[in-house]
Amino acid sequence: MRTNHRTFPAIQFATSYLSASSRFHSLCMATAVPENGTTHSPVVDDNVKLGFQRPEMYSEKLSGTAIAYDRHVILCYKTHDLWPSRVESSDSHPLPKLLAGALKARKNDIPVKTLLTICEGREDAGLSDGDVLLFPEMVKYRGLKEPDIISFVDEVVVNRKPWSAGAQETMTGSHIFVCAHSSRDKRCGFCGPILINKFKEETVLRGLDNVSVTACSHVGGHKYAGNLIIYSVRDKKVCGHWFGYVTPNDVPELLDNHIGKGEIIDRIWRGQMGVSAVKKPQKTSEPSLPNGIDLKITEPDQQASSPIQDKENNGGCCQGANGFSCCRDETPSTETETETQTEPEKEVNNAISKFNILTAEWTNYEVFTAAAVIGAVITITVAYSFYKRLR
Q1: Suppose 107 and one of 56, 195, 289, 297 were both cysteines; which one would form an S-S bond, judging by CB atoms 3.0 to 4.6 Å apart?
Q2: Number of separate helices (H) and strands (E) present in the chain
Q3: Measured between alpha carbons, how far is 79 from 181 in angstroms, rounded to an integer?
Q4: Are 83 and 120 in contact (CB under 8 A)?
Q5: Each residue's pLDDT tens digit, 289-344
Q6: d(Cα 181, Cα 186) in Å, to the nearest integer?
């Protein structure tokens, strides 16, 4: 016998309830709610917005995107998750602020173009807060304190002598510094820690006890994340190579081919310490370009040494794909943009400005003329009307 749902409302209700319950169950299964009941965005979303699947990956040529420099001062200080966006100028972090200030104060006395970067002071890497690393000297000074900064800058950075207040230690092996400055830029904050873990994993697998991996502060070029620097010795010379668009898949090649064999990996190479030319060197022993805080002396975002440098390195910043901004607190400056313009750009802009002024003046002239004509027509109309009434 066939049941009529209209005759039995209870059966109709039960059928509707079971159908709705089934749809709800299917929806829950589709969203894959974890057993603990919490929900979060899939990891792939962050990877597309901030990580190694960003649309901007590999969109630009990297060679020559870094700033030329000859010496790198790296201060070991706390951990990357504690650094503010501008750690070198933060009142809450006096050691990096005072060191950066002392270097700026002596900028005219520093004989070579020098960069300042902050790296983590981690005991597991043999580094403590206040340790200072110098490249290409491959020298480490232990425990720089605030009262000793003036003497350190004068003796070591300006006069290039051993520091009288501390014994120097010679460093060996290869040293990898990966930008993980999350408060400065979300992309570096996402990519950096993943790359560091991958490097550590691969060095253990290969038994490489002479390779250290450390997080460092902003080195310029947010959109090239992952960004890293590798200092190593090749043919008795210290080389500092900079790489961008680095992904976890590139780590084995960097360890085996770059560190192990001294090869340049063209597709991710940004530049090298000690060479101002954009041209890639033929061998790793012939230095070329990178980034950090220029102590001749400004921060990386304020540098404008090359027309091909992205705005992120000279005051603009970091607009991601599809308008997604990855910068934490970067504010583009009109004044800085003007300073970084080339002469032809300035001439074009001046011509445009003059044209705009002329256009505005001509527009005003047309308005006044039209107003005068309309006024004259109205006057004649009123006069003619008055004249007709008199007749």
Answers
A1: 297
A2: 9, 11
A3: 10
A4: no
A5: 333 444 444 345 444 334 334 444 433 333 333 333 345 544 333 333 333 344 54
A6: 8
